[in-house]
Design goal:
By secondary structure, the protein is of the alpha/beta class. It contains ten helices and seven strands. It has helices at 8-17, 35-43, 63-83, 100-120, 144-154, 165-168, 174-183, 216-225, 239-242, 246-260, and strands spanning 22-26, 48-56, 87-91, 124-127, 159-164, 187-192, 232-234. A seven-stranded parallel sheet has the order 1-2-3-4-5-6-7. Helix 2 links the parallel strand 1 (22-26) and strand 2 (48-56). Helix 3 (63-83) runs parallel beside helix 4 and helix 7 packs parallel to helix 8 (216-225). It is globular and about 45 Å long. The structure holds zinc ion (ZN). The site of zinc ion (ZN) has 4 residues, from loops.
């Protein structure tokens, strides 16, 4: 998603050429090609797939939509299994037509329904808490504490948490909850970018690492102390950067990662 204008092939070619060893694949790049073709593209490059993004969006006031979401999440698990992605990241969802408590109950129920399918396909489900500014319609899970509560309630190696600094950096309990997440074996993924001030768009104005106010190195120390040894994924949604030359931008991404993460 960081280089959204690129196709899967362009991402793979350019990431590999830049010496980036991992890629998380968003489902938008799979829309116009057959899954077998996507698998071949990935295999032709020296990249391991970190995750498939994204599943989730379980809650709805309509039962038919909740059922559709389960089917869509199963397709995401199929895609992840084919691409060799060890997990599907869940943006859990929320429906403004009902309470957050009810949305969270439906998220729990959705994951419960998916879990056997995920396990059967060898794909983990990573609950990603989103900043509370998205609680209205994107995620009723807003803090790492809530995500930990949910993951721990499943008590399954197939359910864990994705910690994204953009969503969590403000939380006074962050260090404590990262520790808890790691100790429980639930810390599956770490996403990095930066929080710009002022932020001009709540979705599409994430900053390059070092451009904002997130203490990236401090948070990295916390996740490593919690036992996380997986890739630190750069995940920047930015209509500004997507409008620029993606080759130049990718160089800046790599440089920002090396300097600030
Ligand atoms: Zn993320």
């Amino acid at each position: 998603m960081t280089t959204k204008p690129w196709s899967l092939r362009e991402c793979c070619e350019n990431f590999a050429a830049a010496g980036i060893p991992h890629i998380t694949i968003w489902r938008n790049v799979l829309e116009d090609i057959a899954l077998e073709e996507a698998v071949k593209i990935v295999r032709d490059h020296p990249l391991s797939v970190t995750a498939l993004c994204r599943g989730g969006f379980f809650p709805s006031v309509e039962a038919s939509k909740r059922a559709e979401a389960i089917e869509d999440n199963k397709r995401a698990i199929d895609q992840a299994a084919a691409l060799g992605a060890p997990m599907v990241v869940l943006v859990c969802g929320a429906d403004p037509g009902q309470s957050l408590t009810e949305s969270r109950r439906q998220i729990q129920d959705g994951i419960t329904q998916l879990l056997p399918y995920a396990k059967e396909h060898g794909v983990k489900l990573a609950i990603e808490p989103l900043h509370p500014m998205y609680a209205g319609d994107r995620s009723a899970v807003s803090t790492l504490g809530q995500a930990n509560d949910m993951a721990e309630a499943f008590d399954s190696e197939w359910v864990g948490v994705a910690a994204d600094v953009y969503h969590l950096w403000w939380d006074p309990d962050l260090e404590k909850e990262i520790k808890r997440c790691g100790a429980g074996g639930n810390l599956l993924a770490v996403h990095v970018c930066d929080w710009k001030t002022p932020t001009s768009d709540l979705l599409l104005d994430r900053g390059l690492m070092g451009e904002g106010c997130i203490p990236l190195k401090e948070i990295r120390r916390w996740v490593e102390a919690a036992g996380f040894d997986g890739p630190h994924e750069v995940e920047i949604f930015s209509s500004t950067y997507w409008a620029e030359d993606q080759q130049d931008y990718l160089k800046r991404v790599v440089q920002a990662y090396r300097e600030h993460c």
